[in-house]
Specification:
Chains A, B: Keywords: FAD, Flavoprotein, Oxidoreductase. The structure is a homodimer. With about 475 residues, the first copy, chain A, is an alpha+beta fold. Chain A is about 30% helix and about 20% strand.
């Protein structure tokens, strides 16, 4: 069932000439998978999805879209959450899944150079052969190009930083109508040879140009990892725990995740195969991870952890109620089950925000009280990377609360974002980047002065229509 | 002895009106200290050096320079090595030393917000009261604004990254003639709210705008540190040592510095108070540092290190000849004495370059052979941060080799830079940034396409004359 109009046949022929007929998808069945991302269905019906296999193809496609007056949308692995890779009706989608043949590891330099369509899992599989890994850790399996476009953070940012902090080179095709190719950076740990233009592509949602190849820094794979789940008497004690761990363990602490009681119960209640480490559900749960090299033994790490935590477990009102320790991935499974648990509980309203570390728990109390008053049907189920102040302030409209009241949900989102940005100086977008799903927040919270300047910078890179996001004043 | 011309009196009056008479320096004696940087005397005679104490003053000065058609040069602590803070005759120098009153530590967030003129030592003194430190470690004591302008790296980049990786907020006065003030970023570990414009100021040498305040990330101060100096039989074994340490110690390895034999002997031979850990001088020396939290004991770390190194010390041709271990800073003192040792040995020709880690030693052999043939009077005395591929490929024209042949020195510099960039794909500027002293390399090695785009970006931020560096095609 073809949905492309006859008048587009000329364009489609040109597309087939560039990438080959099998890499031009136009049937609506074929397109369905390219119209959804990590949040589900979201895109319009593109003119076509094309899958170039090399940089030359990408460059030719940019020229073609300029010729034909088409808007070009770049798409990676469709795991994004901001909608930056989803087309509107009639756009041309360049999907980079097949631009994924090149994977090269330099074990001495601890770097990897890969095509932009290579998935995180494929990169890590190749790196693991050399005892290395790419330390930006996520629940999803995005492409490296998509990770650059969103500047993904994840659970181990506390130790290793975001994509930006681990990025050395970008090969880029500019969205300038000509498909100009640039190599920005070099595969070097130290390199300061002028203003670093590749930074402008990071977090740009594919709207500054098309990343075709990346070089990233790798880290030694830890030989020993230990995870522990800590049941806290009071969420506000979380900073005491963090201080003790950072002071005692220094750089060995590689994750410090928080799970509120509702999110914890949703994961354990709805996802099969998980075992509750605590009963009853404590007021707050922290998952921590310790990673170390081959000189360490897990037992020794466990002893040190027990010693560090002991003072927080003494007395009737000790901050720590209980601790569960794991040498495998069982506790991470609970953390990773939270999103699924929420979806199983009802309709999820997701807000990817960040605060200073000291303000997370105060914000949490504050905004929960406001939602309880203003939108009582909506139940906060928050969790997040609280070691770096990142908070998935997600709420659930429970299945048994009747149909979702869209206006009430919008009210709740406005309460959450206004409170975090205007009252707490926090971020309306911590690690999912900017796309159609949150561009209204960008326009609302980023100053006109900064947007104007950003728009001017964007036009230098992408003077012709390209991407879904205008960072300027529109 | 005033050197300012009578015709400038009107300008000087206006300057005094903005920053106060005591903060406008015009006498050549007063100006002398502002005409030299980390490489010594280098600047011309500015019209004046003015020292604003707040952002309003900086903004007013930008407006004044635009009115008067003066070129504005921003200066921090005068510790830079690329000359970006040095004026030419008649420029107006804005020195930020007195913009240094604000120092605020958020211990829970592990961040510091400070005025741009605050020195690294002052920041670290304030952070230490909370058990924290700013991990970009340098021999000099620059201002934070200067560190941003150069994107300094240093000895612990291997673990903590450069300034860019630890930067959260910049308050900037744009060099746009109007002195527009911008706050770019937020004091958050996770924050992705569009294209990150503050990245354009990093490594810009003060030529994109004037940084007036910064927020940076802090790290927990290690409770235990151990340094060891390793004598290698063969410089090419350095990667074997690095692999063993990174695999065994993981994130505990915080420095991995290399010192060639000539640099080693220069430090020990010329700087008083140092004790040679080895005799005779080995073919190559590595200084390594291990840092850990309060859960560790130095003795335990030393045992682990000994165990890791033991296999490399066995047999007649073992890679490691000898190891010296230190629980204080004695071994670092040798490393830090190297620049002084070189200066005492003769005239230093300094090249701040970087390579992939695997290529450092091959490059070193290669270029040393070429210099021995082409400029035999010049003796390589290289050292560097070889754990991150950074190499101070410095040469000495010995005191007893007669007067320096400037043409021969230029030949040697061309050999070094051409070899590192064109043959090895390395960097002509690893961590000292771009300034008048190396702008010719920028123009030589950065592609016209990238320079053109960078120049256009620069003009958006700094449309009127400002700073010493034009990143465009000039």
């Amino acid at each position: 069932m073809s949905t492309s109009l006859p008048s587009n046949e000329g364009v489609l022929e040109r597309l087939r000439g560039i990438v080959g007929a099998s890499n031009v998808l136009v049937n609506s069945d074929d397109l369905a998978g390219y119209r959804m991302d990590g949040r589900g269905m979201g895109g319009g019906l593109p003119l076509a999805v094309v899958r170039p296999v090399d940089e030359q193809g990408v460059s030719a496609l940019v020229r073609l879209t300029a010729d034909e007056g088409l808007r070009l949308v770049v798409q990676g692995a469709c795991t994004g959450l901001a909608g930056a890779g989803l087309a509107e009706n009639g756009d041309l989608v360049i999907n980079l899944d097949r631009l994924s043949r090149y994977i090269s590891i330099d074990p001495e330099n601890r770097t990897a150079t890969v095509d932009a369509g290579v998935r995180l899992s494929a990169l890590n599989a190749a790196a693991a052969e050399h005892g290395l890994f790419f330390p930006v850790d996520l629940g999803a399996d995005p492409s490296l190009g998509g990770m650059v476009a969103a500047n993904t953070g994840g659970a181990r940012l506390l130790r290793y930083g975001d994509v930006r902090a681990n990025l050395m080179v970008l090969d880029v095709v500019m969205a300038d109508g000509k498909g100009t190719r640039l190599t920005l950076g070099a595969p070097l740990w130290k390199n300061n040879t002028g203003i670093d233009l590749k930074q402008l592509l990071v977090g740009s949602g594919g709207s500054m140009g098309i990343v075709t190849r990346v070089t990233v820094a790798l880290q030694p794979l830890p030989s020993v990892q230990l995870t522990a789940m800590v049941a806290l008497r009071d969420p506000h004690k979380v900073l005491d725990l963090l201080r003790v761990l950072e002071g005692g363990l220094g750089t060995l602490l590689t994750a410090f995740e928080g799970i509120g009681p509702k999110a914890f119960e949703a994961a354990l209640g709805h996802v099969p195969g998980l075992r509750a480490p605590f009963a009853p559900t404590p007021p707050y749960v922290v998952l921590l991870e310790i990673s170390a090299g081959a000189a360490f033994e897990a037992e020794w790490l466990e002893e040190q952890l027990a010693e560090l935590l002991a003072p927080l477990m003494e007395g009737d009102d000790a901050p720590i109620l209980d601790v569960a320790i794991d040498h495998r991935d069982g506790l991470w499974a609970i953390r990773h089950a939270v999103p699924e648990g929420l979806r199983a509980s009802g309709t999820v309203v997701a807000c990817d925000i960040a605060l200073t570390r000291g303000q997370v728990m105060r914000f949490r109390d504050d905004v929960a009280a406001r939602i309880a008053t203003e939108v009582p049907a909506l139940v906060p189920h928050d969790f997040g990377h609280i070691g770096d102040g990142g908070l998935h302030y997600n709420c659930v409209w429970p299945r048994d609360s009747g149909p979702v009241d869209a206006a009430a949900v919008e009210r709740a989102r406005a309460i959450i974002f206004d409170t975090v940005v205007r009252e707490y100086g926090g971020s309306f977008s911590a690690e999912h980047g900017i796309g159609p799903r949150n561009i209204s927040n960008y326009r609302r919270f980023v100053s006109a002065r900064v947007r104007k300047l950003t728009g001017a910078v964007q036009r230098l890179f992408a003077p012709v229509p390209g991407g879904r996001i205008d960072f300027g004043m529109e």
